[in-house]
Amino acid sequence: MAQIGTTAVQKAAGLLRAPTGLQAGLAAIAQANGVILPVLELTQIIAQNVPADVIEKSAGTKYPAFYIYCEKLQNTLREKFRQFSGTATLCVDVRLTHDRLEGLDQKLQLYVDALTEVLDANRGDWNSGLFYSGGYTVIFQAVKHGGKNFLQTAKVSFDVQVSV
After folding, report:
1. The domain that contains 129 carries what CATH number?
2. Residues 80, 82, 83, CA angle at the centre, nearest 5°?
3. Which residue range(s) make up the domain with 34?
4. pLDDT number for residue 37
């Protein structure tokens, strides 16, 4: 059953890394809002569930960072004779750091907007028995010490229907 979560995470990470994914979304949002956002490298989209303080101490990281992982699998057996028929709850932690507090929250919201636009554009069948209906929840965390000086994160959670 754990392979189902890995498959869902890899599929979602592929959508975020695609040419029409986060890079395109960030460019469009930057242009629409008249701000300059750094170019996002594909290595900043990481399929791993790791706290910010641990990754900074062990391997370092480049910000902004998008950590995508499977938070929960729920096999409800909605479809008879399927091995797994239920929901995979995926999360993307959007992490942003800055040396000053000013503007940190506003920039984080722009990155979250780009992420949710990618999700909105990819509603429907993801193949491999995965289907995304389009809903998501965003939780903004308080600013804390980390990164360059201040670190703020937002957690975007969404459900993917699985049938295998």
Report:
1. 3.30.70
2. 135
3. 2-163
4. 87
